[in-house]
Design goal:
The protein is of the alpha+beta class and 395 residues long. It folds into 3 domains: 95 residues, conserved putative lor/sdh protein from methanococcus maripaludis s2 fold (Beta Barrel); 95 residues, Efflux pump adaptor protein, beta barrel domain (Elongation Factor Tu (Ef-tu), domain 3, Beta Barrel), CATH 2.40.30.170; 126 residues, Helix Hairpins (Orthogonal Bundle). Helices cover 30% and strands 39% of the residues. It is built from 4 helices and 21 strands. Strands 1, 14, 15, 16, 19, 20 and 21 form a 7-stranded mixed beta sheet that branches. Strands 2-9-12-11-10-13 form a 6-stranded antiparallel barrel. A hairpin with a 2-residue loop joins strand 10 and strand 11. The longest helix has 40 residues. It is elongated and about 145 Å long. The chain starts with a helix and ends with a strand. 21% of the residues are buried.
Length: 395
Amino acid sequence: MRTQSNRRSHSYLIHAFPILTLTASLLLLAGCTNGAAEQKSGAPPQRPPAAVTVAAAVAQDVPVYVDEVGRCVAREAVSVEPQVSGRITAIHFTDGADLKKGDLLFTIDPRPYEAQLHSAEATLAQQRAALDLAKLQFQRAADLIGTKAIAQQDYDTRKNAVDVAAAQVQQSEAAVETARLNLEYTAIHSPINGRAGHRLVDIGNVVAANTGSLLSIQRVDPIYADFTVTENELSEVRRHMGRGELKVEVRIPDEPEQPLLGQLTFLDNTVQDATGTVMLRATVSNLNHHLWPGQFVKVRLVLNTLRGAVLVPSLATQMSAKGPFLYVVKEDATAELRPIKLGQRQGDLMVVEQGVKPGERVITSGQLTVMPGAKVHVNQQNADGSSATKTGGKS
C-alpha cells in the first residue's frame, strides 16, 4: 500500500513540474518587464519653459543729474518795525494776506506828529519873516555906506544878521521836513510784494520806535531753493556751469510727478569744513505759491543730456555677486544671461551703459524660474488686459 501511494505522489510531481516551470518563467518575464518599465519611468522629466513677460529696450535722450535735498527760502524777507512811537489806532490787513508794495498796514496815532509839524511850520514862518527884515535893514545900510552915513561896523552887523536869519530859516525848514517825515511814519506801508505773517500787535498797543517787530513779510514768488553738493561733485558742477545756465527741478516729496522748473543762480565761494559740502541756490518761479519758505524739497540739478541712452525697465535688472545682470530673450526663444553696466535711474527705467542694444527684449518678470539658455514662454497682454501665453517669437 505504501508503495502504491508513493508511486501516485511521484507521478503527481512529474506531471506538475512542467506547470511550475512555465509559471516561474512567466513570473520572471513579468518581473523583467516591470523592471525595465520602472527603469524607463525613472528618467528625469524635461523642465517646461518658464512663463515670463518682456519689454523692449529703447533709446532716447535722458538727463544727467544730481539729486539732493533742499529747503525753500523766501527771496525777500522783511521785519516791519515802527519808526515812530505811539499807539496803534488801525490795522489795515488780515493775517496771511498777499500784499503789494505800498499797501497800508498799520496806523499809529498821528495827532502828536501833526501838532509837531504845525509848530515847525510856524517856526519856519517866523524865521522867514526875520530873514526878510534882516534883508531890508541890510539893503538900507548898503545904500548909506557909500555916503558915510553909517559906520562900517553897522553895515557888517546888518550883513551878518541876514546870514544868521538865512541859517535859521534853513534850520526851521529841516525841522518841518523832520516833522512831516515823522507824520508819514505814522502810516506804515508794505515795503515789498509778499505774504504777511501773523501780526504781533493789536489795536491799542503802544509801540516804541525801532524796538520791536510788528509783522514779517516774505516774498514767495520767485522763491529760492537752497541745497548742497559734496566737494567730489563740485568739479563736475562747475564744469557744466561754464557751458551755460543749469536747469533745476524742484519737487515736493509727496508730489514727485509735479516738478517746478528753475535755474541755478548761485554757487557759494567756500566748502564748509564741517560737512565737506558747498551750498548752491536755485531760483524757481512760484506763481501759484506751490512752494513755501522753510519747506523741505527734493532738488534735481540737471548737468547734461545723454543722447541716445539705452533704457530698460528697472524690474528687468538683477544683482549677483559679480554685479548687475538681466535676461535677454533671443530669437530662438531662449534666455541669455547678460552682464550689464547700469547708469542713472530715470523714473521706472534704468539707463544701461553696456550690455544691451535698443530693440532687444529683456525679461521683466518671472526671472526666478528662468535658466540661462533654456526656452521661455512670453506672456502677451490681450486687448481686455488679461494675459495670454506665447512660446518664443517677438512680443
